[in-house]
Amino acid sequence: MRIAVLGGTGDIGEGLVLRWGRDTNHELLVGSRDPAKARDAAESYAETVADRGGDADVKGFENRMAADRAEIVVLAVPPYHVADTVDAVADVLEEDDVVVTPAAGMKRGDDGFHYHPPSAGSVTALVRESVPERVPVVGAFHNLAAGRLADLDAALGVDTLLLADDADAKATVRRLAEEIEGLRALDAGSLDNAAEVESVTPLLVTVAMHNDDLDDLGVRFT
User: Fold this and answer.
1) What phi and psi values does residue 106 have, to the nearest 5 degrees?
2) pTM
3) Distance CA 38, CA 32 (A)
4) How high is the pLDDT of residue 126?
């Protein structure tokens, strides 16, 4: 399977590419607005996996070109770039593609981070409004700590919550998520539940900020 990670030079994008590169045989396409930056990142990620005995298939492209070549398109971009990124790739998305969104809107206050969704109600809802109607959207990977994800020497042992209105798309992303060692995917219902899931991210960041021994927090439901 071809997975395009748009914004793949950023922190969450890097972590997902590295984990899939080490733990799976999928073809990974790193996307960026700058194709040279994407190619440099892809080469670096492949070397990181190779240093640990793996053989990742990673290539770098401009975002639109990466999306055009992929079956799974992950929008690993900051929330304020999501709409522009979708607009740039919308015409190359097909009905058998799956768009995955991990972004959560938040802003920093005096004592921590607070949930700050767009006018659509959640970033996931914004993506649903922006992609072509025929293309399924899945919310996933919202609450993962980027530093922990990108550290291949760190065990994960955390959960990711899945949101979707399309059962087949959700099942596909569940399989992809659980191919990452130490990551469990749990069903959190429809896209209407996205705000509740996204709002956990600023909570985790705030708790980590106030507790020196709790860097790179994740969630595990028991």
Assistant:
1) -155, 160
2) 0.96
3) 5
4) 97
